[in-house]
Each structure stands twice: as C-alpha cells, then as structure tokens.
Design goal:
It contains 11 helices and 14 strands. By secondary structure, it is of the alpha/beta class. The protein has 2 domains: 2-169 and 220-248, 3-Layer(aba) Sandwich (Rossmann fold), CATH 3.40.50.720; 187-218 and 251-288 and 302-323, UDP-galactose 4-epimerase, domain 1 (Alpha-Beta Complex). The protein has a 7-stranded parallel beta sheet, sandwiched between helices. Helix 2 packs across helix 4 (83-103) and helix 6 (187-193) packs across helix 8. The protein starts with a strand and ends with a helix.
C-alpha cells in the first residue's frame, strides 16, 4: 500500500514517514520544501510540489492508496500577525488539495490537526466533546479543514481521521530526524539552543497566567508516540471504514518553568532566559484527555517529559556542528 505524506519533509511528517515504513507501507513524500528540509526526506521518494499544484499532485496520486496531510503553516503567533498567509495556505490551498484528492478517488485521509481548535477550554483535561472555539487564526484554519473533511465524508465518502494533538517534541530513537524548524518557535529546542554559545536567551512569554507558577501549561507528547498514533489511525480507517476525531496527548501538563528545569536536569547546564510579555492567542492551559484514542485506536503515549527532553538533547548532540554547542 502506497501512502502519500504531504509535508513529509517537516518535523512530524518525517517521523510519521519512518513509522509508516517500519509498519510495511510504501511512502512517497510530497513537499514544496518551503519550511521542510530535504535532509529529513532522505531515503524516501520525494516529489516537490505545492498543495495547489493540481497537475503535480494528480500525478503523485495516481498510485496512492491513502494520504496523510501535514503540509500547513503552524505558528500560532505568526497566524495572529499574518492571518492572510494561514488562510491562503491552510484553507485555500488546502481545499484545492482536498478536491484533487477526492477527484483521484482516494477514500482515506489522516489529517494533522491540533488542540488549537478548542481555543480556551472551559474544562481541563479536554475531551473531544469540548466546544471548538479557536482563539487564533491557526486554530481557525485547522478547524475549517476539519469541517471540510466532515462534509466531504458525507458527500464523497472520504473517510478521515482528524488527529488533534498537543505539543509534539523529541526525536526518533535512531536520531535520523529531530525537531528542526526555521524559524524555531518551540519551547524545548529553544531551551536547548539557549545552552549554546550563539543561541539566544530563551524568552518566557508570560509569567502571570492563572497557573501554579504563572507560566503556560501544555501537554507534551513524544513525536514517536505521535507517529505511532498516525499509523494506528490509518489502520483504523482501513478496518472500520468510519471517520473520527481524537485527541493525542498524555493527560499530563507541564509548565514552561517545569520544562526548563527538565532541560537543565538532562543537560547539567543552565538555560539562559528572560521573562517577556504574553503572546496573543496563547491559552493558559491545554491538557488532553486521550481516552478516546485509547478506546478507538488502542493507543496511549508511552514516553514522559524526561524521555522527550533526553531524545531532543541527543539529537542536538549528534548535530553538534549545526547547533554550535559549547
């Protein structure tokens, strides 16, 4: 079975591509490399193309049995300052992509969604029954695509798994691929970068949230656990033939300061940091209730925060020249 992975040269997509290959699938990566990295697609067939490039996409879909869709802009802060970019890519180009997929006769799609669709939840942990009221354009764009998938399911029989995951982090056990963004905005790699000679101080955005230490709390999930969930979601679509939306998280929240302490404990170094103002669009607490994923996919996260940080640290040590460690 051939799986087309859009955005497969990105952080999460590259991990999922490897998990699919380990599970026996043939993988083709489709990526325009605007934010992805060619090196993360090493060992796979790579087709360079945009989501809205229907001609190139149609050719890629000719021998495709199912699609996993990761190709989206994914920075909350940027979505607030430049919403046009997010609606152009995640919505307009996303719909063009979806129409091409349907026209090609594809019946199964796994979508990389996000907990940002919930906005500021009334209750923690968050279940799939919580109202979807996103508070930033990134979350709005992802929810729009989820809604389109539901409509295409009813109208065209496109079965989909909408995976609403929380904060992905860490690196694969073989250290083939790790967290690599340009620009980097994620907490753990930024905290590790602050250990280097050239790395900037870590900005702690907000210290006055209604949390025990005043900093945001998030549910951090190891990218390898996340990749496993994507394979299971595809298998669920194959065996059950019904769509679903599920949270992917650990049910455990960690504040920014707790993550910093975990980085310092793993490395034996001090993270240079300073407090900054809150960022627009950041809810104070986001923690998953992943019980539906356990029931439907027989999946649960296996790795804790220490393992997440440890794998990310090993990834950076392997790439010492790039990260310029002391």
């Amino acid at each position: 079975m051939v799986i087309l992975v859009t955005g497969g040269a990105g952080y999460i997509g590259s991990h999922v591509a490897r998990a699919l290959r380990r599970a026996g699938y043939e993988v083709v990566i489709y990526d325009n490399l605007s934010t992805g990295f060619r090196r993360l697609a090493n060992g796979f067939e790579l087709i360079e193309g945009d989501l809205a490039d229907a001609a190139t996409l149609r050719r890629a879909l000719l021998r495709t049995d199912a699609v996993m869709h990761f190709a989206a802009h994914a920075y909350v802060g940027e979505s607030v300052t430049n919403p046009r970019r997010y609606f152009d890519n995640n919505v307009a180009s996303g719909l063009s992509f979806l129409n091409t997929v349907v026209d090609a006769g594809i019946k199964r799609l796994v979508f990389s969604s996000t907990c940002a669709v919930y906005g500021v939840p009334a209750q923690i942990p968050i279940t799939e029954l919580a109202p979807c009221q996103p508070v930033n354009p990134y979350g709005v764009s992802k929810l729009f695509f989820e809604n389109a998938l539901e409509a295409y399911d009813r109208a065209y029989g496109l079965r989909s798994a909408r995976l609403r995951y929380f904060n992905a982090a860490g690196a694969d056990e073989d250290l083939e691929t790790g967290e690599l963004h340009d620009p980097e905005t994620h907490l753990i790699p930024l905290a590790l970068a602050a250990l280097t000679d050239r790395g900037p101080e870590l900005q702690v955005y907000g210290s006055d949230y209604p949390t025990p230490d005043g900093t945001c709390i998030r549910d951090y999930i190891h990218v390898m656990d996340l990749a496993d969930a994507h394979v299971r979601a595809l298998q669920y679509l194959e065996s059950h033939g019904e769509s679903l939306s599920v949270n992917l998280g650990t049910a455990q929240g960690h504040s920014v300061l707790e993550v910093i302490r975990a980085v310092e404990q793993a490395t034996g170094r001090t993270v240079a940091r300073k407090l900054a103002a809150r960022r627009p669009g950041d809810p104070p607490v986001l923690v998953a209730d992943p019980s539906l994923a356990k029931a439907k996919l027989q999946w649960s996260a296996k790795r804790d925060l220490a393992e997440i940080v440890g794998s990310a640290w090993k990834w950076i040590q392997k790439n010492v020249a790039q990260f310029d460690l002391r």
